[in-house]
Automatic annotation (TrEMBL):
Transmembrane segments: none annotated. Residues 150-204 form the Peptidase S9 prolyl oligopeptidase catalytic domain. One of its GO terms (molecular function) is serine-type peptidase activity. Pfam families: Peptidase_S15 (PF02129), Peptidase_S9 (PF00326). This is Alpha/beta hydrolase. Residues 24-138 form the Xaa-Pro dipeptidyl-peptidase-like domain. PANTHER family: AB HYDROLASE-1 DOMAIN-CONTAINING PROTEIN, ALPHA/BETA-HYDROLASES SUPERFAMILY PROTEIN. InterPro entries: AB_hydrolase_fold, Peptidase_S9_cat, Xaa-Pro-like_dom.
Length: 221
């Protein structure tokens, strides 16, 4: 997984990027948890999602947002971090101009940033949100949400209680044409300490189901 440095809005950003050998492979961008609470691209759940996309044949990137690791700049309360995510997406799209799809996956704070990016980039075709901090941030901007996705919550999450995530899921599921695949992991807290493999398996299951459905729809046309 080669290290890459690319231009961000507040200086250079550090990432790890896997380029698929398949022509026109779909893209995936993976976003890490809160930088002020130790969140980096090497976070266990972030890494597990990265490897899951790699295994599925995607070209995939995870990166450090501003002020994390060797990325320049400083934490910007989420606003600048959305611009960092957009810059990472720009870099991947420049390298892969004919990609067949685009997925965004985020964990905790990364899920919030990812969903903000989803609203700004209509080319995103699917999303994964693990423990989205629905009790800390207002997700009302997802109106309307452009597409369905996978949301994962920990049954024993002490930082983002499961009912707060369920409330967000219920709200999104009332929107026309949007279906959220909601999965609650029994015994999991916010760090998903013993559940990284389960997160990866849920991601693979959801993404392959959605992609197979789309392929069948195209074949039927």
């Amino acid at each position: 997984m080669p290290e890459v440095m690319f231009a961000g809005p507040d200086g250079r950003l550090e990432g790890r990027y896997h380029h698929s050998s398949a022509p026109n492979a779909p893209l995936a961008l993976v976003l890490h948890p809160h930088p002020l609470h130790g969140g980096t691209m090497n976070n266990r759940i972030t890494y597990a999602m990265y490897r899951a996309f790699e295994k599925m044949g995607f070209s995939v990137m995870r990166y450090n947002s501003r002020g994390v690791g060797r990325s320049q700049g400083r934490y910007d309360g989420g606003i600048g971090e959305i611009s960092d995510a957009a810059a990472a997406l720009d870099w991947m799209q420049m390298v892969n101009p004919n990609a067949s799809g685009l997925w965004i996956a985020g964990y905790s704070f990364g899920a919030f940033v990812g969903m903000q990016l989803l609203m700004r980039r209509p080319e995103i075709t699917g999303w994964i949100s693990v423990a989205p901090p629905a009790n800390h941030y207002d997700f009302g901007f997802l109106a309307p949400c452009p597409c369905g996705g996978l949301m994962i919550a920990g049954e024993n999450d002490e930082l983002v209680p499961e009912p707060a995530v369920r409330k967000l899921v219920d709200k999104l599921n009332t929107q026309k044409g949007v279906t959220v695949d909601y999965r609650i992991f029994k015994g999991a807290d916010h760090v998903f300490a013993n559940h990284a493999d389960e997160v990866a398996e849920a991601l693979e299951d959801h993404v392959s189901t959605v992609m197979n459905r789309k392929a069948l729809a195209l074949a039927a046309d």
